[in-house]
Amino acid sequence: QRQLVESGGGLVQPGGSLRLSCAASGFTFSSRWMYWVRRAPGKGLEWVSSIDTNGENTYYKDSVRGRFTISRANANNTLYLQMDSLKSEDTAVYFCAKDPRGNDRGQGTQVTVSS
Question: What is the predicted pLDDT for the residue at 69?
Fold first, then answer.
């Protein structure tokens, strides 16, 4: 049984927006820091964003800070990533994860930014 299931990816034009969701199950979501990581074509996994257990503290990779917003809803075990002002270099498979390296992650959702 998959513990992390991402959704919300798709094809979007540069400057557009997408909202990713991650449904968590099988563990105590509210007591875990959560993360988004991504893998761009031909590259390795890279950390994108982190959020603490109650959502009060968030952290971002420099290249996405000010454009992406991580959030969580502990009441329904869901993690989110709001992505605005998307750029072509944001094209990647996005994963939610239980660790910042992405070793324990979902199956991912494809985000393609292209005109």
Answer: 98
In this prediction, residue 2 carries a pLDDT of 75
Q: Which burial class, exposed, middle or buried, applies to 82 when counting CB atoms under 10 A from its CB (0-12, 13-18, 19+)?
A: middle
Instruction: Using alpha carbons, select from 95, 112, 97 the residue that is nearest to residue 39.
Output: 95
Tell me which of 1-5, 6-10, 21-25, 70-74 is least confident: 1-5
- In three state form, how does the secondary structure of the chain look? CCCEEEECCEEECCCCCEEEEEEECCCCHHHCCEEEEEECCCCCEEEEEEECCCCCCEEECCCCECCEEEEEEHHHCEEEEEECCCCHHHCEEEEEECCCCCCCECCCEEEEECC
Predicted pLDDT of residue 21: 98
